[in-house]
Amino acid sequence: MAPHTEQLTRPAVSLRGLTRSFEGRTVLDGIDLDLPAGQFTALLGHSGSGKSTLLRAIAGLDHKVAGSGELSAPQRVSVVFQDSRLLPWRRVLDNVLLGTNGKDAADRGRAALAEVGLKGRERAWPSELSGGEAQRAALARSLVREPELLLADEPFGALDALTRIRMHGLLRRLWQHHRPSVLLVTHDVDEAIVLADRVLVLDNGRIGLDLTIDRPHPRSHRDPLLGEYRERLLAALGVTEDLA
Ligand SMILES: Nc1ncnc2c1ncn2[C@@H]1O[C@H](COP(=O)(O)OP(=O)(O)O)[C@@H](O)[C@H]1O
Ligand SMILES: [Mg+2]
To answer: InterPro entries recorded for this chain (predicted)?
Structure first.
């Protein structure tokens, strides 16, 4: 039987009039948004603009927050934060396997660690990992569940510049291989335009700009056409570059 067209085209994430507020202060102000299945989207915004609030709402991690609106998201969602959140008393592989089961779980965990470049570190303790390695382990832990949606909240924000560039390549490769929908929260315009095929700017509780970045991958910061996207995004963020 032919699959339902509706199922093929149904967005992975759908928000209608999503509102969230803290102590009477509105942070998300009626957001309408669809994220198609398999799309790599970045969400930009100033500090305090509500990026994490939106991500937590989509992740279903905000039961105590006041709000309204409609939200639908896939069943299998993984979340990666700036801090790897590995349990220090469990070895790396055991961290990756936390909450998974099935008799091939350990094999899948080892495969996920190999995929993020941590083959041979299965029995290491989290304290023995560098910041970049810990984030690799966090990515392995998120992927072992084969998520339909990967939510990442400034996952590279605490890493040095070189490590961050390597992590960009890794995240893009992982996405190509597994094809989850990705929502990457970042305040780094360059990170957004190098990685994402669509960039949203959160401003005053709404999506102020929704930009499709139609350039091939892997992308280079030197691509002059990316420069045009950068300028539009900076303008939407209210940043002017001519400080000289
Ligand atoms: N649990 C909370 N209680 C009260 N205020 C909060 C809470 N979480 C976030 N806020 C407020 O909501 C606003 C948006 O926060 P957040 O979503 O973390 O912003 P971003 O991730 O874009 O930096 C900020 O003003 C923040 O202080
Ligand atoms: Mg945040």
So the answer is: AAA+_ATPase, ABC_transporter-like_ATP-bd, ABC_transporter-like_CS, ABC_transporter_ATP-bind, P-loop_NTPase
Burial 35-70 (b: 16+ CB within 10 A, else e): bebebbbbbbbeeebbbbbbbbbbbeebeeeebeee
Pair 86, 125: CB distance under 8 Å: no
Do the domain assignments include residue 165?
Answer: yes
Q: What is the total count of domains within the chain?
A: 2
Closest C-alpha to ligand 1, atom 3: 22
Residues around ion ligand 2, judged by CB within 5 A, are: 51-52
Residue nearest to atom 18 of ligand 1 (CA): 52
The answer to whether residues 164 and 229 belong to one domain is yes
For the CA of 50, the nearest atom of ligand 1? 17
Global confidence as pTM:
0.94
Q: State in Å, rounded, how far the first CA of the chain is from the last one.
A: 64
Residue 241: per-residue pLDDT = 64
pLDDT below 50 — which residues of the chain?
Answer: 1-3, 5-6
Among 22, 64, 154, say which to mutate for ligand 1: greatest number of ligand atoms within 8 Å of CB.
22
pLDDT at 222: 82
Last residue of a domain, one of 123, 146, 169: 146
User: What's the domain range around 117?
Assistant: 86-146
Write the pLDDT tens digit of every residue in 129-141. Answer: 999 999 999 999 9
